[in-house]
Amino acid sequence: RRERQRFVDKNGRCNVQHGNLGGESSRYLSDFFTTLVDLKWRWNLLIFLLTYTVAWLVMASMWWGIAYLRGDLHRAHDDAYSPCVANVYNFPSAFLFFIETEATIGYGHRYITERCPEGIVLFLFQSLLGSIVDAFLIGCMFIKMSQPKKRAETLMFSRAAVVSQRDGKLCLMFRVGNLRNSHMVSAQIRCKLIKSRQTPEGEFLPLDQCELDVGFGTGADQLFLVSPLTICHEINSKSPFFCLSQRSLRSEQFEIVVILEGIVETTGMTCQARTSYTEDEVLWGHRFLPVMSLEDGFFRVDYSQFHATFEVPTPPYSVKE
């Protein structure tokens, strides 16, 4: 088996890294919310914890600073004195007062008095800042948790693609399946052929993308993905594989990228699953084993045979030949 660099891994991850952005990296900061959602979970949780920790410590320090500047810390136990915040003696008590205010637990032992205008202003500022921080971070975590990436892991693609005849025509085929009972609404499949080529003008295109027709004109690309389906690309005069034969397949270098898109029925969010097939994962003269069987009142899908193929008589010549 020949191992080489893929453009898209079998699990759908794109092997592309952006470097030397220079001043363009500032665009990430201009769209900070999307950047935060795209980060890995460990960085999201770290930012979540650090933001709340720093905000709590800063606001608690401001409450302690007001009490210190007014001299409330030294006269907190004087019953005849009216402090800004009652029963705030030190920084821990100021921090507890901030938490009670932020979490709307109820003041109880600690409360703001009416003779502290700066405390009232700080209270309003704390309420506004807390609402903004909560909306930003909780919204970010909710969107990240509701992303349909995990749903894409329950969409299966066959490990290999096959080339054989169907209805008297040479076809490139692969299989897709949905492991969940919930359906993918408006599921659509597309295929891209990634192959290097040189133009007549001498320009070299290392990753040229070409569309593979999997039924766009007939509507066959719109899938009713209730049971595993075999996706078929007819190799004809318009196909990039018009000159592909069993012999030339051994010397070719290409990659077929498959993109399956649909709407998750339970959440209504768009989901995309990807995979790819290199030339050594295309089996000439093979066909997929059936996986559907009729049982008592329902159809049964045997996923143990999902990737299995068997050989069939297939001409070794290209369609052109």
UniProtKB/TrEMBL annotation:
InterPro entries: Ig_E-set, IRK_C, K_chnl_inward-rec_Kir, K_chnl_inward-rec_Kir3.1, K_chnl_inward-rec_Kir_cyto, Kir_TM
Catalysed reactions, semicolon-separated: K(+)(in) = K(+)(out)
Compartments where located: Membrane
Keyword DNA-binding carried by entry: no
Primary localization class, coarse: membrane
GO molecular function, one term: G-protein activated inward rectifier potassium channel activity
Domain Potassium channel inwardly rectifying transmembrane residue range list: 8-148
GO cellular component: monoatomic ion channel complex; plasma membrane
Keywords: Ion channel, Ion transport, Membrane, Potassium, Potassium transport, Transmembrane, Transmembrane helix, Transport, Voltage-gated channel
Annotated site location: Role in the control of polyamine-mediated channel gating and in the blocking by intracellular magnesium: D134
Keyword Transmembrane: yes
SUPFAM superfamilies found in the cross-reference section: E set domains, Voltage-gated potassium channels
Family: Belongs to the inward rectifier-type potassium channel (TC 1.A.2.1) family. KCNJ3 subfamily.
Name under which the protein is recorded: G protein-activated inward rectifier potassium channel 1
